[in-house]
Amino acid sequence: MKLFLMTLIAAKVAFSTPEPAIDEVIAKFDQAGIAWNAIDQVNWPEYPYKPEVEFRIMHSNTEIYLQYHVKENGARATYDYDYRSKPYTDDCVEFFMIPSDRDNSYFNLEMNCIGHGTFDYGPLGGPRFHCDDRILSQIRRHSTLGSQAFGMIEGPQEWTITIAIPKRLYAQADLDLTEFSGRTVKANFYKCGDDTAVTHYLSWNPVGTPQPSFHQPDFFGDVYFE
Length: 226
What we know:
14 strands; mainly beta; Immunoglobulin-like; globular; 14-stranded mixed β-sheet; single chain
């Protein structure tokens, strides 16, 4: 089953250092006028809850930058560590991407609403490699909800998370992968919460599977890196 294909452009920006402070990244999103994109596809009718979710993406010579903005009822954050956590059970945002033209491995970055999560890669149906804290510690992130687990909180919640991913981490699958500029890659962006007050599964590009599943490269959209 093929659905319509979403496309977007990841603008290229410049910083004075290869790995700028996360505050500089946050400011750059606004200074560069990076556009927001909706994560609003409800692919499975049995999970109709639809919080307001949007994201934006940009990149530099050395890193990929993501920012998610969420408005929802309640929030769940029970994991305040990375390796072996299960961020998808909390309020979680995700970024899946196939970075290489020669290797079909896809990477899945999953971060809960306080910026803790996992980074795995491998081919569909093949072994998945789970990055440990040595790798995860290189991914910088900041959430407006802080970084400490708080369990469940009720009522209207609004939060933003900003993430900086060094491009070198994607060379784990393709050792020759050094450049993103001028290339189009396959990717998808998600918001979920398996064990939240209302279970939900939203995507940027539609997913045409009978049951919830984000590990579906056939349903990734196109992201062009300037």
